[in-house]
Amino acid sequence: MTKSVIIAVDAMGGDNSPNKIISGISEYLKNNQNVFFRIFGKKDNVENEISKYSIKKNYFEIINCDDVVGNNDTPLVAAKKKTTSMWKAINDVKEKNSNVIISAGNTGALFVISKLNMRMIENISKPALAALWPNKIDMNIVLDLGANVECDEKNFEDFALMGAALHKALFPFDNSRVALLNIGSEEIKGHETIKKAYQSMENKKNNLYEFCGYIEGNHIMDGNVNVIVTDGFTGNVALKTAEGTANFISTELRKALSSGIIAKISSLLNISNLKSFKQRLDPRLYNGAILLGLESPVIKSHGSTDYIGFANSIDVCVRTVKGQLIDKIKKNINI
Predict the structure, then answer these.
(1) Hey, what CATH class is 1-120+294-326 in?
(2) Which of 5, 181, 211, 280 sits at a 20 to 30 Å CA gap from 78?
(3) Within the chain, which residue ranges are assigned CATH 3.40.718.10?
(4) CATH of span 125-292
(5) CA distance 22 to 37
(6) pLDDT below 70 — which residues of the chain?
(7) According to the model, what pLDDT value does residue 280 have?
(8) How far apart, in whole angstroms, are the C-alpha atoms of residue 8 and residue 201?
(9) What are phi and psi of 81, to 5 degrees?
(10) What is the 3-state secondary structure (H, E, C) of 170-209?
């Protein structure tokens, strides 16, 4: 049976692997069948985990790997080990045996090995790390989240195009609206690089997105735009701040609703609303960052996520491939 999407899986990366990796695959296959997994890892360990689940053999193949990339390995050390599950999984995409690679392992190593194995898309000089970020209406794409500390105006323009292409691949029926993250909404605000990017993007027509100017950090969640562009330093700080805020709210709300008999009764009366609120803040539902700019998509699952989070990152893999992400970038980069 022909599968529409073939995913190369680094089964040894991240916490509690390969258990959560195989469990995540099993979870994904409960409702989705048109996918095939090429699983890279220590064969005995992977087979032992697969035996715990009813995964049919026509959905996977195991490729034995003698070594793994450790969480504490530097990217340079990791890149020298070409027998690891991460290296082999990435190389599998390079050789066109798989459509996309997913790993929950060492982030720096994943990026460096990916760049060593895969070519950049023509006319894009730097890759960018993008991720899903909820807003009041639906979902944002935010990039860059850490791949580049310093950017020029051309990088911002490239990130906008790649972010819009990702948005259209994941949400094909939505209009992509791009904004530059800045300290103010007025044209005169911000450093010279971002002001140059603003002027260039304002004066260009693009088939993929509508340019909506600047957005401030306190309006990221409003939903008026859905692709937010920034440099890797600012984006990473914003992401970690948002994650910390969400965790703080969830923890404090849990404390407040269990602090006394009246609070407990109130929580029982509002249990459906509370479940909905908790789900909106659940980071597992937005798991799966995407390294954009290479000839093939590279998906980074959070290392500490569980099997549900990994299953959601598999869904991101499938949607980026079916949504023809790379073709959308290539088609529009020279326009």
Answers:
(1) alpha beta
(2) 5
(3) 1-120+294-326, 125-292
(4) 3.40.718.10
(5) 10
(6) 1-3, 250, 256-260, 262-283, 334-335
(7) 60
(8) 36
(9) -100, 100
(10) HCCCCCEEEEEECCCCCCCCCCHHHHHHHHHHHHCCCCCE
